[in-house]
Amino acid sequence: MVDIVHAAASRAAPRHGTDFERWLIARSFRMVVPLCRLGLLVAMLMLLVVDPLLFANGTWGDRPQHRQLPVWHAAAALYFAVFLLYAPRLAGHRARKACLAWCMALGAALFTWFGSLSWVLSGDMSTYAIFLLTMVCVFSYPGALRRALGVASTAALSASILWFDGGSVFFTSGAAFNLAALTVVALLLDAYLMAMNRALFDEKRLVEHERARADAVLFNALPMSIANELKRNNAVATRRHERVCVLFIDIVGFTRYAAEHPPDAVLQVLDTVFSAFDTLVEHHGVEKIKTIGDAYMVIGTHGAAPLAQLALDMLAAVDAYNRHAGGALQVRAGMHVGPAITGVIGLQRLHYDVWGDAVNIASRMESTGSAGRIQVSDAVWQELRLIFRFRCRGTIAVKGKGPMCTFYLLGRQAAVGGDTGPDADGQRRAADLRPWLAA
């Protein structure tokens, strides 16, 4: 039996490779565990209740097979108990696969023994038939091990019956033919179920692939926390934030540039620049909200400093693009911090957006700013004046708000050990993007 296990287990791997094998073994373990619990319960019931009653009322005779029944019930109970105690400790695939192989081999030997006892005592092999079909249906194992064990078990049972019972009734009653037919059915069922398992695995893998693609689209369209909430609840709660920093950045004169260049060239420029912006947004851990034409909108809910550094890095990235592409693009940016509401709108083509006075003022900071500059409101200056360097622009008229004091963001404050302004941090990050921008 040991040789059969090792020989059959070492045969060709399934067509689907390791992934299919891992899935098959894990699935088989999930099915075998409850079956072993039931088997342990039945074996203990027979050993502790039924066997003593049969012995007490004289049902058992002097035949050695009667005395073997309680031994078999004890062996079966031990078999199921050991598996239930040992299996939960197996975490690795190889250990589980080996455990399953030995479980099938020992089970085949155990039920071959019971089939022989059952035939000699009652001329019935229904319990053995149940085992053989159960092994085929429940023990999902790759390769030819199940088939080899089924054939070996049937051959061993036939030889045992011939040895202990003479075999005359076994052949004349048609039991031998039925056993052979059962084995053929088990082999055909084995092939069919393995094909079904492969089809199920392929379907499962296809579903997982499609789900991953859908998740990728969802996580690309919405912030991760919002996308996860939408997946859990099928809705997203509107949230009010007391302090949201909003950044708008716009390509200056892009309307004229678009009119003077072919559409594909215009789109290529936008894609290159905005893709660089996307990389910087991810680096700084803030949220891109949307692009509107040549305008790019970002928010941050953990202070204004990340967006301030992002704006400086965006200017440096555009400068890097101009140097490598020979362009003359200019951008202007505007920032403000204040209360806002965030949420997802629509039933189709869901859109995560921000509303509030902070958005309007940030947009005004951008539109009234200067090319190559980052204009910020007094609220941003108040929050960041000890970290970044600013230059006061003075008071300007802001539509819908009246006169406002604004500032130009210049860079970080000088630190011990070297400058950390835009010519250091920003240029350093822009340098990381240069090979990709040039492409």
Structural class: alpha+beta
Q: Quote the beta fraction.
A: 15-25%
Largest sheet: 8 strands, mixed
Q: What's the SSE pattern?
A: HHHHHHHHHEHHEEHEEHEHEEH
- Average pLDDT works out at 82
Number of strands: 8
Task: Kindly report how far apart the N and C termini lie.
Answer: 64 Å
Question: Uncertain segments of ≥5 residues (pLDDT<50)?
Answer: 1-16, 416-423
Shape: elongated
Question: How much helix, percentage-wise, in residues?
Answer: 55-70%
The DSSP helix count reads: 15
The radius of gyration computed from the alpha-carbon positions, rounded to a whole number of angstroms, is: 37 Å
Tally of discrete structural domains: 2
Notes on the protein architecture:
There is one protein chain. By secondary structure, this protein is an alpha+beta fold. It folds into two domains: 214 residues, no CATH class; 203 residues, Nucleotide cyclase, GGDEF domain (Alpha-Beta Plaits), CATH 3.30.70. 64% of the residues lie in helices and 16% in strands. The protein contains 15 helices and eight strands. Strands 1, 2, 3, 4, 5, 6, 7 and 8 form an eight-stranded mixed sheet that branches. Strand 4 and strand 5 form a beta hairpin. The two termini are 64 Å apart. The N terminus is likely disordered.
Give the key terms:
Alpha-Beta Plaits, 16% strand, 8 strands, alpha+beta
SSE topology sketch:
Layout lengths: L1 H8 L7 H40 L7 H23 L6 H30 L3 H13 L6 H21 L2 H5 L2 H47 L2 H10 L5 E13 L2 H7 L2 H22 L2 E6 L2 E6 L4 H21 L5 E15 L5 E5 L1 H11 L6 E4 H7 L3 E11 L3 E11 L9 H17 L1
Parallel strand pairs: 4-6
Antiparallel strand pairs: 1-3, 1-4, 2-3, 4-5, 6-8, 7-8
Helix pairs in contact: 1-6, 2-3, 2-4, 3-4, 4-5, 4-6, 5-8, 6-8, 11-12, 11-15, 12-15
